[in-house]
Design a protein that fits this description.
The structure is a homodimer. Chain A is globular and about 40 Å long. In chain A, strand 5 and strand 6 form a beta hairpin. Chain A has one domain: Orthogonal Bundle (Arc Repressor Mutant, subunit A). The C terminus of chain A is likely disordered. In chain A, the strands form two sheets. Chain A has a four-stranded mixed sheet with strand order 1-6-5-7. A three-stranded antiparallel sheet of chain A has the order 2-4-3. The two termini of chain A are about 25 Å apart. Chain A has six helices and seven strands; from the N terminus they run βααβααββββαβα. Chain A is an alpha+beta fold and about 170 residues long. At the A-B interface, helix 5 and strand 7 of A face helix 5 and strand 7 of B. Chain A binds a DNA duplex (25 and 25 nucleotides) through helix 2 and helix 4.
Chain lengths: ~170, ~170
DNA sequence: GTCGATGCAAAGAATTTGCAGGACC
DNA sequence: GGTCCTGCAAATTCTTTGCATCGAC
């Protein structure tokens, strides 16, 4: 991998994130319940973006059922504390991923139009370009989302020569 | 405005777009119906991004009521033909805006966290950075969405010194 | 013991779909 | 005249809320 290669999978903090989240939740005056901790561990363990339903389903399958409402309420809490990042890639439901409130491990996303796969990636050049762009607009910019859509390696294979053209 | 200033409101093609859309729809084997043309004109006339509900409501208010289902079906058609761009900014419903299939007039969006306003902007520098980034990943990238979130000029005014900090 | 947190089920909201009748070519 | 298109209403899906109960502090 050369220095111009975008870094794949920015490897989230996992356990580190879970502890941070529990600490921040407590600090914000919230209680530590079993269902909540279960959800936190599930989110922290996954590197991919999850929907509320996926979280609820996987926890049920794991023998630790948590009500869907609780999942949504927990995600809302975490989003307010900037501990999860909500991502709307256009599917039916919103997706969530762990985030560091300070912005470390920040990254962008590739979305496959064919299979729906979501792949995170980091790119310092792009990141700088975004910051510069943010200075040129008249909004006071805080966050940003960048989504590149196309075909993932697996799906691109099957339709290699169609070359629908990369429109801007 | 200096050369480093991002261009505000990329002024969409309006009538030009409506004609293009009708032509392309016909070319794709679809019929020209009254409700459909009405929707096309509504979309083409707006420079801001609209939700399906907004389109239906405004048309009803204008005395040209069109069923919501028809609005959705028309938007789906247009999206497939790349004549509208769907935008998920995180609200309850998806937003749509006219687009040129070739990518002309392509732009990005500023979203106000406070009032929900969506402002389009163009930025050639950012655009180039995105294209370069797209070459560094292993997806075959076609489209992209860039959303900068923060406070619009009006909303920023009221909370000027809070400076919650631009996290990356 | 108090008050936040949970779960279930009902409520809401956005979008899709089935179907009978009407419009376009 | 055969299809495609439309509108309405029912169906789906995602998310939020009300409320009685349970559990953390």
């Amino acid at each position: 991998m050369t220095s111009t290669e975008a870094t794949r999978v920015p490897s989230p903090p996992a356990d580190e994130w879970v502890e941070l989240a529990e600490r921040e939740l407590r600090r914000a005056g919230h209680r530590a319940s079993v269902p909540r901790s279960t959800i936190l561990r599930m989110i922290g363990a996954q590197e991919c973006v999850l929907t509320a339903r996926e979280i609820a389903d996987e926890l049920r399958a794991a023998g630790k059922p948590v009500g869907v409402a609780t999942v949504y309420r927990t995600l809302e809490l975490l989003e307010d504390l900037r501990l999860v990042q909500r991502l709307d890639v256009g599917g039916d439901s919103a997706r969530y991923e762990p985030a560091m409130p300070g912005g470390e491990h920040h990254h962008h996303h590739l979305v496959c139009d064919a299979c729906g796969r979501v792949t995170p990636f980091q790119d310092p050049h792009l990141e700088r370009a975004i910051h510069r762009a943010a200075e040129r607009v008249d909004y006071r910019v805080g966050d940003h989302d960048v989504i590149l859509r196309g075909s993932c390696p697996d799906c691109a294979e099957g339709s290699s020569r169609k070359a629908r053209g990369a429109r801007s």
